[in-house]
Automatic annotation (TrEMBL):
Protein name from the UniProt record: Cation:proton antiporter
Compartment annotation: Cell membrane
Keywords (A to Z) from UniProt: Cell membrane, Membrane, Transmembrane, Transmembrane helix
Region (Disordered): 107-157
The species this protein was found in: Mycobacterium gordonae
Family of the protein in this entry: Belongs to the CPA3 antiporters (TC 2.A.63) subunit C family.
Amino acid sequence: MTTYVIPMLVVAGLFSAGVYLLLERSLTRMLLGLLLISNAVNLLILNAGGPPGNPPVRDHGGANRPATADPLAQAMVLTAIVITMGTAAFVLALAYRSYRLTTAERVGDDPEDVRVSRLTGPEASAVDEDEPEPVPTVGSDDPHELDAIPPEGHNGP
């Protein structure tokens, strides 16, 4: 099986750009990085599927392609596309919810992670995990306040 260099360079470029975007603090860039990585994996699967061949149907092939194409790679990519779109919709919904609650697109530092990272070795082992500190809530979880368009008859807060 021969692997072509140019498609592998495209896969490497898409994957590296996706990882770079995924490590950003902006939710939109994280979503774009996730999509780039999934497209790179799809191209990698197609490239690993081998050269094109005859369709996997009896007596529907050409004489110039001696082998039958493997339909597994195409089926895996189609399944991956559906899973990627579902994941992208979920991340987009999370980003929208986060933006509606905090009115910021960037993900901030978690105060608990910052506090734990500042502890030294003995202090970190002495942290009591049974009683977590209460987390202050931001905004409201009332669906009417989170909707972009308020329902009729709702006068607001």
